[in-house]
Amino acid sequence: MPANMARAHEHYAEGVPTEITIPDITIDRLLFDSARDYPDRVAIDFLGRDYKYGELANEVERAITALYMVGVRRGDVVSVILPNCPQHYVAYFAIAAVGATVAEHNPLAPLSQLNDQIELVGSTVVIGWEKTLEQLIVDGDFKGRTYLAVNLTKALPKKSQFLLKLPIKAAREQRAKLRGNVPPGVHSWDNQVKHADPTPIAKVEGADPDDLAVLLQTGGTTGTPKAVKLSHRNVISNTMQVEAWMPGFKRGEETVGAVLPFFHAFGLQLSLCFSVQSASTIVMTPTFDVDILFAGHKRHPMTFFGGVPPIYKKILDAADERPQVDLTTIHYCVSGAMALDPELAARWERATNGYIIEGYGLSETAPVITGSPVSPDRRPSTLGIPFPSTEVKIVDQDNPERIVEPGEIGEICARGPQIFQGYLGNDEETAEVLSEDGWFRTGDLGYWDDGFVVMADRRKEMIINSGFNVYPSQVEDAVRQMPGVVDVAVVGMPTDSFSESVVAALVLEPGATVDLEAVRAWTQDKLAKYAMPKSIAILDELPRSALGKVLRRNVKERLSQLELRSGQWRERISEASSHASARVDEYLESLREKASASVDDVKAWTEENTEKFEAFRARIAERADHDGETADEDVEVSARQSGLTLENFKTWLASSTAGIKDYMEHRKDSSESAASASEADNESRVHTVTDAPVADSPSDVDEK
Hints:
Blueprint: H1 3-10, H2 28-37, E1 42-46, E2 49-52, H3 53-69, E3 77-81, H4 86-98, E4 101-105, H5 111-121, E5 125-129, H6 130-136, E6 146-150, H7 158-164, H8 169-178, E7 187-188, H9 189-195, E8 212-218, E9 226-231, H10 232-245, E10 255-258, H11 265-277, E11 281-284, H12 290-299, E12 304-307, H13 309-320, E13 332-335, H14 342-352, E14 355-361, E15 368-371, E16 385-386, E17 391-396, E18 399-403, E19 410-415, E20 422-423, H15 427-433, E21 440-449, E22 452-458, E23 463-465, E24 468-470, H16 472-480, E25 485-496, E26 499-508, H17 516-523, E27 535-538, H18 552-560, E28 563-565, E29 568-570, H19 573-595, H20 599-626, H21 646-690, H22 698-703
Helix pairs in contact: 2-3, 3-4, 3-9, 10-11, 13-14, 19-21, 20-21
C-alpha cells in the first residue's frame, strides 16, 4: 500500500473500517428494507405533513403501476424535473424499482438547457413540476414523449390545502407560486399514482446492480455539459461508505435535514439515499428557507444535516437572533461543494456540540471520495482522507504516470466502487478522465499533507501567469482576510497568447473602499509576486450555483463585458460616456429653451431644476476626481447665489455647459489615449513574456 494511503488510514476514527463489503442490491431496496423494518416510523416531514415508511412503500408500488401504464420498462430513461418533495421521493424509487433510469434535472434551469438535457438523455417519459412543464411544452409539441405533471400542493397538510383554496388574495398568490397551467394532453402524476393498484415489489423484475440507475447533469472536468452515468452499485457503494464513516449513526433513530436538492449528487446521496438507508426521518424542504427549516426542526429535532458553507452561516445567523432555536441535537454535519472556513466550522461546532465533516467529491464519484474523520483528528480546510474501499493518488498533471511526492501539487485521482460508468454518449471525454484500470482523473489539483488531501485548485481554473501556475483558491484565501472584503473570486483574464492576468473580483462591506494598491499591499507578504492580483473589480455579489458555489466562469464572463482602467475593471467608457452625454444633452436642451424666456419663467424653472442640475454637476466632478482629473471649481453652479437676473442666468448657463462639455470632450480624448497606451503596453508585454521563466512543474513554481 502506498505510504500516503497507509498514513491516511491511521487517521481513521475508531470503528471505521478501511474496506467494506458492498451488497448486491439495487437502489429501491433501500426504501423497501427500511419500510419492512420500520413501517410506522415517520419517513418524511414535508412542511408539516408526516409520511410513514410503510405508507411510502405502498405509494411507490402504486407508482410502479403508473409507470407501467405509460409504457416505462426496464432500460428506459425517465426525466424527473422536480424540487425536493414527496412526489420526487416516490418517483425516484419507483423508477429504480422498474429497472428504468432516473435522469435528474433542475426545475429552475433555463428552458433551452432543459430541452437539451432531455434530448441528450433520450427520455421517453418526463415527470415535472407544473410550473416547469407550463413553459417547457411549446405549442403542444410533446416530441414523442409522455409528460406527467406534479401538483406540489397535493403533498401539503390537509389544512394548508384547504387554506390555499380560499377565495382571497393571499391564497391566490400562494397558489400562483406553487401551481402552473398544465398544457392539454399532460397527465397528472398525482392522480395516476393515487388511482393505480399497487404492484408488489416481489413481482417486479427490476434491475441488476450494475445496470444504469441515475443520470446527473454536469459540466465534468472540462466544463462541457454532459450526463454522468451512475449504476445502482455506484450509488449503493457510496451510501454504504457514508454509513461506515459515522459508526455512531444509529439506524432508525436519526433525523436528517434535507435542504440540498435531489437533482444534485450531494443532495441525492445525503438527503435521499443515505437518509433512507438509515431509516431516518427526513425534514424535507422544497428550497432552503431558514423559517421553514426551523419549523421542521421544532417538530422533528434534526440530528444530521448536510449543507454548504453559505447555508451553515445563514442558519447560525438566524439562530443567533432566535434564542428559542436549539441546535444542540445536531450531532453530525457534512459540508461540501466549497472550502469551509475554519472560523465558521468552529462556530457551528460550538452551537451544536457536534462534528462538521468536510467531504469532497464530484457527480462522477456518486459523489464522495474523501472526508474529514469523525474525530478530534480532523483538520479544517482540507479535503480529508480517502473513504473506505477508496484509493487516492496524486499525479503529475502533464504526466499521469508519475506519482508526485508528498507536498507537491498534482492532479487528484481516485478509484473505488463509487466511480461512475462514464459520460452518456461521449466515449471520447470518458476516455480522457477514466482509465481502463478504473482510475478517475478529477481535474482538481491538490497535494498530500500527512495523509490528508489538501485542495490547490480546479485544473481548468488554474491561471498561467507568465509561465507560473497560480491557484485561484490560494489567492482568494489571502485576499478574503483583508478588512472590508466580504467575498472574493479570482480568475485569469487573457492578456496575450502567452499569459493570463490575475484578477480579484471583490464584494465589499457597505461603505468600504478598496483599490488595487491596497490589495497588493495586503498580499505582498502572503503571495508570490506573480500570484498577486494585477487588477480588481468591485461587484455587488458573486454569481453562484444552486448549491452556493462561486461560478468563476461567470465572473470571467462579467469581466469580459467591462474594460480595464487604472487597475480596475469598470463599465466601458464608450457606454458610460453615451449615457452621460445623453443626460447632458437633455439638460442643455431644456436650458436653451429657457434662455430666451422671461425672467419670471426663468426664475420658476430654476427653482425647480437647479438642485437637480447641481447634483448632476457634482457627479461629473466626482467622476473627474476619481479618474485623477480636476473639476472646474470656478464654474458658478447656482444662479441663486447672487440673485437671479436674465443676464447672470445666461452667464451661468454658458459657463456651466462649457464646463460639462469640456469634461466630456476630455473624457473622450483620455479614452482614445488610454486605448493607444494599452495597445503599446500589450505589445511591450509580448516581448517581456517571451523572456519569462516557464515552470516545468508545480513544484518548480513553489521554488521560484
